[in-house]
Amino acid sequence: MSALLKPAAPLDVAAIRAQFPILNQQVRGKPLVYLDNAASGQKPEAVITAITDCYRGYYSNIHRGVHALSERSTTAFEEARERVRSFLNAASAREIVFLRGTTEAINLVAHSFLRPRLAAGDEILVTEMEHHSNIVPWQLVAAEKGARVVAAPITDVGELDLDAFERLLGPRTRLVAVAHVSNVLGTVNPVARIVALARARGIPVLVDGAQGAPHLGVDVQALGCDFYAFSAHKVYGPSGVGALWGKAEHLAAMPPYQGGGGMIRRVSFAGTTFADPPERFEAGTPDIAGVIGFGAALEWTRGIGLDAIAAHEEALTAYAMARLAEIPGLRLIGTAADKAGVVSFVLGHVHPHDIGTVLDREGVAVRVGHHCAQPLMDRYGVPATARASFAVYNTHAEIDALVAALWKVKEWFD
Amino acid sequence: MSDLRDLYQEVILDHNKRPRNFRVIDPASHHAEGFNPLCGDRIAVFVDVVDGVIRDLSFQGQGCAISTASASLMTEALKGHPVSDLDALFDKFHELVTSDGPTPPGLGKLAVLAGVRDYPSRVKCATLAWHALKAALEHRADPVATE
């Protein structure tokens, strides 16, 4: 829904689906309809092969050995770093830190960037639509320092109230942390605008890109933010791997997060000096094959084209919103003008858990619950929602299957 | 593979739609809140115990069909019974919803929840009110969580 999107050729979804072995199966006697992509995406053959090729052909520890396998693994690992750089349009691959995922990336920034500059009475500004992983790491350091986490309100349709946000940017605000895309509402936040408001006051901005990276082309230099965190597993890569991009001057000034091997320059009992970023923040042997799979996933995604993926998911989202609105008693949670790939709803008095179980019997996988966003559930006065979320391989027919299954839910519980 | 009907039996749907003893007891000799962090559901359980007997038992809150029906059926099963019956009944109920063995005897209407055993992610829904009741009788102040 971004005006900047170039018109993209329609995707050959059947050919794309054929690349995902897991999609070709029956669940409970029905064809699998996988609509839980905001929780985790499935993996194409190219990613599975990249990981098995590593283990079968050239796996070894990296950055250590002088032998051939170690050199091959190191080269592949560092190629993945370059692929992340390219995916985010970062200025340098040295600005890319490999971590376990978005959560660890945010914890790293909380610990090594924010903590040293935080004093009693300071504030971290987030929004009401944040995932717990963009709330709790800030609360932990805030509690330690006597600072506090402030949440900017959202409107009833699920858009950030920018006026209120601007008013909350105060002299004590030390960091702004916002989701690029809400994991519950699908709202695309106006990150460039948020960054402009914060930067005018000298306040750094972290963007939680867990849901942004899979759905939107990301250009961290155009966004103007200071940190961007995302996970491989939501971008068709393996779980347990993710990346933090941070501006070089920030990373250079940050103390280590964890101590161990690989992050040092010289160790002695008199004192230890640390490696430069990104290795300073990559203590211990990383998930080598996972990082290589991460790189393969980004390459695969780029091959399909983020613009084409975004246009496809935008069409699916619009279709899903229209079809779901046909169901009496169904209330959409999150109807922002700019939405990407995520549709949450509640259905009359039927609890989302019961919706999820009935849909599962129809082969339809959705997420039900609070989606690690309990403050947002409180905001809408619901204990939980059901959420359908889309990926490049989903089809209009699968949304029809979701809608048909929801009519069955009504048969059971009305 | 079990049918959806095995989980959502008529009795369960009925107790979900019209939960019994869905009210506050005030004053109650004991009360506690149960919380399921998985889904955010909360159920408050109220008990009035006189001379070791559960004279009145009720609950309130928001939950799925399984947790609501289980709470409702629990209040019916235990009202008028000695507090000392709870542990044995809960053990049997827990076995009912978690094991593959034959339905334990003496559960009465609670046996309709047997289908839960085929849905491991829903066991916590079925036991939420029970954990809250145990906490209430133990006079625990903090909400009891299912995990």
UniProtKB/TrEMBL annotation, chain A:
One of its GO terms (molecular function) is cysteine desulfurase activity. It is an enzyme of class 2 (transferase). Pfam families: Aminotran_5. Its EC number is 2.8.1.7. This is Cysteine desulfurase. It catalyses: (sulfur carrier)-H + L-cysteine = (sulfur carrier)-SH + L-alanine. The keyword Lyase applies. CDD domains: SufS_like. InterPro entries: Aminotrans_V_dom, Aminotrans_V_PyrdxlP_BS, Cys_dSase_SufS, PyrdxlP-dep_Trfase, PyrdxlP-dep_Trfase_major, PyrdxlP-dep_Trfase_small. Belongs to the class-V pyridoxal-phosphate-dependent aminotransferase family. Csd subfamily. Catalyzes the removal of elemental sulfur and selenium atoms from L-cysteine, L-cystine, L-selenocysteine, and L-selenocystine to produce L-alanine. GO terms for biological process: cysteine metabolic process. Residues 33-402 form the Aminotransferase class V domain. It comes from the Bacteria. NCBIfam families: sufS. It comes from Plasticicumulans lactativorans. Keywords: Lyase, Pyridoxal phosphate, Transferase. Its cofactor is pyridoxal 5'-phosphate.
UniProtKB/TrEMBL annotation, chain B:
SUPFAM superfamilies: SufE/NifU (SSF82649). One of its GO terms (biological process) is iron-sulfur cluster assembly. Residues 8-125 form the NIF system FeS cluster assembly NifU N-terminal domain. InterPro entries: NIF_FeS_clus_asmbl_NifU_N (IPR002871). GO terms for molecular function: iron ion binding; iron-sulfur cluster binding. It holds the Pfam family NifU_N. Belongs to the NifU family. This is Nitrogen fixation NifU-like protein. It comes from Plasticicumulans lactativorans.
